Amino acid sequence: MITREKLVQLFPDWEKGLYEEVLEHATFKTAEAGEILLKKGQNIKSAMLVTEGTVKLYQEDDEGSEFFMYHLNPGEACAVTLVCNFHLEQSQVLAKALTDISYIAIPLEYMDKWLQKYKSWHYFVIRTYRSRYEELLKTINEIAFKNMDERLEFYIKRQVEQSGKTVKLTHQEIANDLNTSREVISRLLKKMENNGWISLSRNEFEWIKK
């Protein structure tokens, strides 16, 4: 169970009444690292707001290949679930707990009601849409206009921003996120190490480029 004080800390711009309704009507859930929270094609019955830990979102094709999109951190909402709730659509993404997490699940029937009732919720939804749209534009730019060297550098910088200079990822995990082969990633990571950008260790790397 989450406290009102914690809600205020995570979502400081909400109106007083909105905090009370979230505490009354939302469900507070937990998940372990690696647990799938949302599957492609799944019908969405609630919006997801992260309170602890990190969620990783992927685009998934029909063959099951995954492409990393962005992270969700405490105080952030899954825009996909907000959209699906509003339009009654199925999810087109895969969401997985990167760490042990806690999150708020807001039932469908309150979404439209709160948009009408609380300006702070309306603005929160709009900010979430805008933030994720900007993230997607950056990702599309990397896919469409950059080669794999540049895409890998962009990806690594995002992981460093998320986790700090030491990032625990295997070459295969990076390859999966970028929808390429482990051999390509291993070769490019070695090239980056030779150029003095990173230091490689078993199942992790350290960013050292100035």
Features of the shown structure:
210 residues, alpha+beta, Jelly Rolls, Arc Repressor Mutant, subunit A, 2 domains, 4-stranded antiparallel sheet, 3-stranded antiparallel sheet, 8 helices, 46% helix, 24% strand
Structure summary:
With 210 residues, this protein is an alpha+beta fold.
Instruction: Please write the string of helix (H) and strand (E) elements.
Output: HHEEEEEHEEHHHEHHEE
What is the residue-mean pLDDT, rounded to a whole number? Answer: 89
Provide the CATH topology of the largest domain.
Jelly Rolls
Helix content: 40-55%
Secondary structure class reads alpha+beta
Biggest sheet details: 4 strands, antiparallel
Distinct helical segment count? 8
Any overview of this molecule?
Helix content is 46%, strand content 24%. The protein is of the alpha+beta class. It has two domains: 4-143, Jelly Rolls; 147-207, Arc Repressor Mutant, subunit A (Orthogonal Bundle). Strands 2-6-4-5 form a four-stranded antiparallel sheet. Strands 1-7-3 form a three-stranded antiparallel sheet. Strands 8-10-9 form a three-stranded antiparallel sheet. Strand 9 and strand 10 form a beta hairpin. The longest helix has 27 residues, at 119-145. The mean pLDDT is 89.
